[in-house]
């Protein structure tokens, strides 16, 4: 079956499409992407909950706003997308945000991302070292000679994995490194082709929950004098504990954490970011976070301006002053 379309009909249709697009812009429709992480981590589902809540269709959404959560390689990739203009905002670890804005650490010699601004600090991101229960890995030092995934290049996890390894006197040369997200890492652990993997994110992480339910795993503690020295040297780290039975069969585990932050560019409109921040801390978003993900309950207004390694966006700062959060 075939059909033809006249030039006049095509032109009329194109004109209608253009008119529709102009109408949408005339009505003030705005787009605000949120770069997250891999779909099996914590950033992606939290980003989806926030995007749905702040969009105009949300219970306390921003009028005319269309927000979407976009899967990505994580912190560094999200900051690069914001800096390059291909994303309006994204999630990042507090350490990576600080390095980017100051041009230090991971960004040493690469220039500063001076326009990076904070919308909100969200929740603690726990450093997980997940190991097969039969791999004989009881400490970070036991990773030597093992097959270990330290996450993909461009992620915040890979940066912190290298810092933790170094704290215990190890480098990538001392392990058999792989560069995989938690989902693929879990699959390789199931078929015994991987011994352990690093992941930085809120607990419980979906990929680890699934792995613990189907295979025997353990969490490797990050503790002792090596961890204490690391905490002293890298101020963005804090002590953290994964409670017993967060993952099936895994006891309480001492480790460290950084903060998950939602960042944007100083170039984003002040009024828009103000309305987005207001919507983030509305009753509708509160209900969605509480019901939608175990980590949602940890996202509270009292922590919104903690771990301030970069400046607040003026729109967000206005909201926090009005709400009394920022004195």
TrEMBL record:
It comes from Borborobacter arsenicus. Residues 1-26 form the signal peptide. InterPro entries: TRAP_TAXI. It holds the Pfam family NMT1_3. The lineage of its organism: Bacteria, Pseudomonadati, Pseudomonadota, Alphaproteobacteria, Hyphomicrobiales. CDD domains: PBP2_TAXI_TRAP (cd13520). Keywords: Signal. This is TAXI family TRAP transporter solute-binding subunit.
């Amino acid at each position: 079956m075939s059909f033809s379309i006249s030039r006049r009909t095509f032109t009329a249709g194109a004109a209608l499409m253009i008119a529709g697009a102009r109408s949408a812009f005339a009505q003030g429709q705005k787009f605000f992407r949120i770069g997250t992480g891999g779909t099996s981590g914590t950033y992606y589902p939290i980003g989806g909950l926030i995007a749905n809540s702040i969009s105009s269709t949300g219970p306390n959404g921003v009028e005319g706003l269309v927000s979407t959560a976009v899967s990505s390689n994580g912190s560094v990739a999200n900051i690069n997308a914001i800096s390059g203009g291909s994303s309006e905002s994204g999630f990042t670890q507090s350490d990576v945000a600080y390095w980017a804005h100051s041009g230090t650490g991971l960004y040493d010699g690469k220039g500063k991302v001076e326009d990076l601004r904070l919308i909100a600090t969200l929740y603690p991101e726990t450093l997980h070292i997940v190991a097969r229960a039969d791999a004989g890995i009881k400490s970070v030092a036991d990773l030597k000679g093992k097959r270990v995934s330290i996450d993909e290049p461009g992620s915040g996890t890979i940066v912190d994995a290298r810092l933790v390894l170094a704290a215990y006197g190890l480098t990538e040369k001392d392990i058999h490194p792989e560069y995989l997200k938690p989902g693929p890492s879990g699959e390789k652990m199931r078929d015994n082709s991987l011994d352990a993997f690093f992941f930085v994110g809120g607990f419980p992480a979906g990929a680890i929950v699934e792995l613990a339910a189907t295979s025997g795993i353990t969490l490797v503690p990050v503790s002792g004098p090596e961890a204490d020295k690391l905490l002293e040297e890298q101020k963005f780290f804090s002590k953290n504990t994964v409670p017993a039975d967060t993952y099936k069969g895994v006891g309480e585990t001492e480790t460290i954490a950084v903060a998950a932050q939602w960042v944007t560019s100083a170039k984003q409109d002040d009024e828009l970011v103000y309305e987005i921040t207001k919507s983030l801390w509305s009753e509708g978003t509160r209900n969605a976070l509480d019901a939608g993900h175990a980590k949602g309950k940890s996202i509270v207004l009292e922590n919104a301006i903690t771990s301030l390694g970069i400046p607040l966006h003026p729109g967000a700062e206005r909201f926090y002053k009005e709400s009394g959060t920022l004195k």
